[in-house]
Specification:
This protein is an alpha/beta fold. The chain has 9 helices and 10 strands. It is globular.
Length: about 325
Amino acid sequence: MQRNPEELYELGPAAPDIVDAPMLHYLEGFIDAGSAGRMLAEHLLRNFSSETVARFDADRLLDYRSRRPLMTYDNSHWESYETPELALHLLRDAGGRPFLLLTGPEPDHEWKLFTDAVLDISARLRAGVAISFLGIPAAMPHTRPLGVIAHATRDELISGHQRLTSRIQLPGSAPALLELRLGEAGRDAMGFAVQVPHYLAQAVYPAAALALLGSVTTATGLELPDAELREASERTNEAIEQQVAESSEVAELVRALEQQYDTAAETLGAPGIQGNQGVGADGGAGLLSEGEPMPTADELAAQFERFLAENQGRTDPPGSPGPPDH
C-alpha cells in the first residue's frame, strides 16, 4: 500500500513560499566528531530569530528506548519531560535573506517515508539547495587547518571544494539518503564533513563548527556571523595548547601528526588534503605514509582526558553560551 508522506509532518498555519532558499539540515544520531554539526545548528538557532514551518511526528519516527528522552525528577515527583522535536525552521541571515534549517534527532524508522516527506515539503516551499554538515575523525593535528570534504548531487556544486575520490561503502544515514533521493529527483543537494583531530573527536571542538560555517557561507552566499564560534575556538585552542605544553609525550605525538600531515600536504599540493588522503572506510583519515603506524586514539585521548573532563566534557566549550531555547 502506498503511504502518504504528509502523514509524517504538519505544516504551520501559514507556510511560506520561499523561492530558492537554501535548506540546511543536521540530524543528531549519526557520526559527528567534535560535535561540529550540532554546534553549528545551535549557533544558527541562537543567533537568528526563527519560526517553525513544519514539525515531524517524532513518536512515529524515533525509538525512545534506544535514546531515551530526558525527564526531570524533583524531590517527590516528576517535574518535566523533554519532548523530542524534529522540525524545519525558517531563519533569515544578517542581510535578511531567508534560509531553512531542518534539525532534531535522526529518525530510527521509516527512512523512505521521511525522505519523501522532506522532498515534499521542500517542493511545496520551493526551497533551494539542500546542505548537510557534520564532523568526522581524522588523523591530523589540531595545529593545522581543518580539511572540509564536500560531496554533492552534481560536480558543479562543489567546484573548488575538497573532495574524496575513493569508492567506499559506509553505514547509511538519513541525511545521506536524503541527498541521494534529492539527486535522483533532479534536485540540488550537497554536504560538508569537517575533519576533526581524532583525539578531540569526543570533545566539543568549536574550530570544526567554524570550518563548517565557512563552507556553508561559501556555498550559499548567506551572511552568517562567526564571531561567537571564532572566540570559542580561540579559547579552546589555547586550553589545548596548554595541555600540550604540560606533557612532553602529548607534544611528541602532536609533532608526529604534524610531520605526517605536512608530508602528505606537500605531496598532494597544499592547501588542504586532496584525493584519497581524506577519510578512510572506517571514518578515519588516510594522512599516514604507506605502512607507517599511527598513534592510536586511545594513546592521544588518554593524555587529554583531564582537559576534556575539566574544560569540555561532552557538552559545551569553555565559556560558550548554552544551547538555544528553541
